[in-house]
Amino acid sequence: MNQVCKTVKRTVGGYQGNKDMLIQILLGLQNKFGWLSSETLREVSKQLEVPITRVYQIASYYKAFSLYPKGRHIITVCMGTACQVRGAARLLDRISTMLDIRPSETSEDKRFTLETVNCLGCCALGPVVVLDGVYYTKPSKEALEKIFESAG
Amino acid sequence: MEKLLTLEIDKRQVRVREGMTVLEAAREADIEIPTLCYHEKLKPYGVCRICSVEVEKEGHVRIVASCGYPVGEGLIIRTHSPRIDRIRKGIIELMAPAVMIDGDVAGEIKKLAEEYGADVHRFESRYRVTPSRCILCGICVRYCDEVAGAHAIGFVGRGIDRRVVFFPEEARACITCGACAELCPVSKIAAETDFVVFDGFTVDDWLTRKS
Amino acid sequence: MSNNRLASPGELEKLRAAILSRRNPNRRVVTVCSGTGCQSYGAKVVFQKFAAKVRSQGLEGKVEVKATGCHGFCEKGVVVIILPEEICYLSVKPDDVSEIVSRTLGKKEIIERLLYTDPNTGKKKAKESDIPFYNNQNRIIFGNNKYIDPKNIEDYISLGGYGALSRALSEMTPEQVLEEVKRANLRGRGGGGFPTGMKWEETRNAPGEPKYVIVNCDEGDPGAYMDRSLMEGNPHSVIEGLVTGAYAIGSHDGFIYVRQEYPLACENVEIALKQAEEYGLMGGNILGLGFNFKVKVHRGAGAFVSGESSALMSAIEGKVGEPGLKYIHTAIQGVKDKPTCLCNVETWANIPFIINRGADWFNSIGTEGNKGTKIFSLVGKVNNTGLVEVPMGMTLKQIIYDIGGGIRDGKKFKGVQTGGPSGGIIPEKYLDTPVDFDQLTKLGSMMGSGGMVVMDEDTCMVDMARYFIEFCCGESCGKCIPCREGLRMLREILTDICQGRGQEGDIEEIEDIAEVMKEASLCALGQTAANPVLTTLKYFREEYEAHINEKRCPAKVCKDLINFYIDPEKCQACIICLKNCPVEAINGGKDLVHWIDQEKCTRCGTCFEVCPPRFSAVIRSSGEPVPPPPPEGTRVVRKKGG
């Protein structure tokens, strides 16, 4: 039994194989794996004995689930109103161009996933970029290059 | 013994069994109500809204989907009226850009457009995505789920990104009853799959799509 | 480990008395608001510093430090209240902790700079009850938050918690409980306003077992966070209401559905349920009175429409959370086609109060047909943003001005948005309207779940309508044609209008599409999604016409319709805007008049923001031609006394 199979078994078992808890099971697996692969979804369908159509419908319907693997580093650009006014859109564009990915996409080398968020709550520091939990305020092009380079 | 009750549909008194829907009652009385997402073998889905009718109960009028509304004693139903006709016209105009081929709609949609005086080009200029050719009525999905039991075709996504996709593993093993292609009111499935090949129409195609 | 199980109402009362007698009335309590809002201001660190300081100075015997739920005055987080004096310190930072401990706790000195300052008189208010934000409210449901550590059931018990449940189970029949709630005229607080007693009765009388009860904590209206703060701060009040209701209805199985975007609420409700069970207030043979009840928690997974009752019940069954045909009340056929009573968080939280103080007391608050209080999230361009609880019938003006402190930054009121994406924006002339289920509906809006977003002259109403349509478009389940395609088109049209591509006939198109959506959508999301557009068309039509006919945004918000330029007469060449421009679109230099390159300008408005007010040289215009830049090398004419 491979890792996916084992983890699914454990998660499904944690809910006593109750089909009603399908969404809760998927939330648990999204948390563990960081995304829901086809393999994971197939395994859930098999072990919980629910049609694959239902599993995919749910996995593709909700914002909490990602059907694509995320990169090793998540880059979050705040697009809250205050940051917007201070050039967040331009910053997002710049990062997007530098890494050749659009928001919600992951770079080919699986290093970075670019995401936006509606407000981080530190408006006085805007525009703000977060990488691996570290907040960078008003980063210049050079600063961004350094940040991305030093990320593993 | 099944309970019988009386209601009025388009000024006619109709005697029906409790538990029927207004649509079923109308059909039994040979009163026509247009539908797109309804199929007698499937649970009412109520998404095309073309079967909308006026229901008057104790002086209050409501617009409901007749395919799912249960009959009740003394209800007054109007299957056509200026209000209903406007609604049906509006629904057709809103769905038309998605199913436009070579500048026009076809089949059932064309018939309805003509009957209700819908301008199928009304929203064309502001429809800025590739037409999906699907009205998401769900007959294919629901038939495969509820009747054929193959679970080979399903919904993915949400809102304007909602799509119907095939699941190749299940589709290959399905009983190839062909019902999905036969029942599709806009002939999308027949046109795109030859009943066998699902290129461009599978869940994997959807996962790897370029937005 | 001691057994905490309470085997009878008597044991509950004994425990309550014991907790109270254990408490030293002279012991000070430092309550640190630890709701999600104050956490983003650093409440965790403030709490930890207090705890550490109290420990290091050996003050544990004299001072208790408590992390409580939301205190409501979110504008001024971190809020710290020192009991029993009720000294209210606002905007507390970690660096203030030392001083508070030494001066206020040690020497009973009040630190002026941390107090509320009346903006008109400049006077400071030390006590929470003297602050207009608080004393104009009626904080029946919400006020207890400041006394309760949500992770400790004994705090709730010490305030009388679970007394209503105890009384209901031991002294009242289910019918009597139901009758009391019916008599109280409580209406659903989630937005629908359906009479709660009637819903309970319908569920109770519906044939079929088992019967289910559900707490709807899928609060999704952008700008509304009342339920979050109740669930985070006082989960037991909701649980007690739920179990009491279950008894009245004849249900033994409940669900609590919480959005996963509320991790603290999820965490605190799980802790509360575990503790309730431990204390014999949940589970089998509650309080030894033979009533069994168990609850399952379901987390949402990120879909606004899943808060709609049929969608929520579908999700509880493990199916996708989409609405379905619902012509038979869910009270009769809900989860698995069994009788199900779904109520909002705040609705359940009202129940213990009604049982404890009686329906007559409840009916003494509010107006005809609208009894009790309502919690609102008062946000936007007000001075005092936060969560407020007022009796039904208080006017918009009273809430926004007496409690909210009026419009911030000296701007002019323009409108107040109520009811979330299903509601509308109410203009100034209706500020004297009492707020309840019925009055706001007459104006084309609705009270909704309680979100109240205040807008000023800098808000573009067309942009706001576009924002709500954009929101609903992203949240529509996409099942039915009127909603899915209607929102698609409305989004295109409104975006076009905001970006200068509005056409004659657009308003009629909007109205036609709105009519189809309202009349024919499957669920309330589609039926009400056009309300923000329709109400803004009703009250602010001139703004739409300006956008469409003149390509002008009167509020100067819509980026594609505005321009920034620098008035060469006013510019003093301070280089501030030049340095701050994110796209280097400003030319000029020291002593050289600055000018904006319109080709490069992205209309972000940074220059407008940073130009010193005494110069105010950056002009924001809309619908007017932009003056050409001054000739190259134009020097600044220095103002005398510069």
Produce the secondary structure layout.
The complex is a heterotrimer of chains A (152), B (211) and C (642).
Chain A: H1 3-14, H2 22-33, H3 38-48, H4 52-61, E1 73-78, H5 81-85, H6 88-99, E2 112-117, E3 128-131, E4 134-137, H7 141-150
Parallel strand pairs in A: 1-2
Antiparallel strand pairs in A: 1-3, 3-4
Helix pairs in contact in A: 1-2, 1-3, 3-4
Chain B: E1 4-9, E2 12-17, H1 22-28, E3 52-57, E4 60-65, E5 76-78, H2 82-95, H3 107-115, H4 139-148, E6 153-156, E7 163-166, H5 168-173, H6 179-183, H7 188-193, H8 203-207
Chain C: H1 9-22, E1 28-33, H2 36-40, H3 43-56, E2 63-68, E3 80-83, E4 87-89, H4 97-107, E5 116-117, E6 124-125, H5 132-135, H6 153-158, H7 163-171, H8 174-183, H9 196-205, E7 212-217, H10 226-233, H11 235-249, E8 253-258, H12 263-278, E9 283-286, E10 291-299, H13 309-316, E11 340-344, H14 345-357, H15 359-363, E12 366-367, E13 370-371, E14 373-380, E15 386-391, H16 396-403, E16 413-418, E17 424-427, H17 439-442, E18 451-456, H18 461-475, H19 481-498, H20 506-520, H21 524-528, H22 531-539, H23 541-550, E19 562-566, H24 576-580, E20 586-589, E21 592-596, H25 606-610, E22 618-622
Parallel strand pairs in C: 1-2, 7-8, 7-11, 8-10, 14-18
Antiparallel strand pairs in C: 1-3, 3-4, 5-6, 9-10, 12-13, 14-15, 16-17, 16-18, 19-22, 20-21
Helix pairs in contact in C: 7-11, 7-14, 8-9, 8-11, 10-11, 10-12, 11-14, 18-19, 18-22, 19-20, 20-22, 22-23
Description:
The complex is a heterotrimer of chains A (152), B (211) and C (642). Chain A is an alpha+beta fold and 152 residues long. Chain A has seven helices and four strands, in the order H-H-H-H-E-H-H-E-E-E-H. Chain A has helices spanning 3-14, 22-33, 38-48, 52-61, 81-85, 88-99, 141-150, and strands spanning 73-78, 112-117, 128-131, 134-137. Chain A has a four-stranded mixed sheet, covered by helices on one side. In chain A, a hairpin with a 2-residue loop joins strand 3 and strand 4. The longest helix of chain A is centred in the N-terminal third of the chain and has 12 residues, at 3-14. Chain A is elongated, with a radius of gyration of 18 Å. The two termini of chain A are 31 Å apart. The model of chain A has no long low-confidence stretch (mean pLDDT 88). Chain B is an alpha+beta fold and 211 residues long. Chain B folds into three domains: 4-80, Ubiquitin-like (UB roll); 84-126, no CATH class; 139-207, no CATH class. Chain B is 29% helix and 17% strand. Chain B is built from eight helices and seven strands; from the N terminus they run ββαβββαααββαααα. The longest helix of chain B is centred in the middle third of the chain and has 14 residues, at 82-95. The radius of gyration of chain B is 19 Å and the shape is globular. By secondary structure, chain C is α/β, with parallel strands linked by helices. Chain C folds into five domains: 23-131, Glutaredoxin, CATH 3.40.30.10; 161-363, Rossmann fold, CATH 3.40.50; 367-456, Ubiquitin-like (UB roll) (Roll), CATH 3.10.20.600; 461-550, Up-down Bundle (de novo design (two linked rop proteins)); 559-622, Alpha-Beta Plaits. In chain C, the strands form seven sheets. Chain C has a five-stranded mixed sheet, with helices on both faces. In chain C, strands 15-14-18-16-17 form a five-stranded mixed sheet. A four-stranded mixed sheet of chain C has the order 2-1-3-4, with helices on one face. In chain C, 54% of the residues are buried. The A-B interface holds A 38, 51-54, 56-57, 60-61, 67-68 and B 141, 144-145, 151-158, 165, 167, 169-170, 203-204, 207.
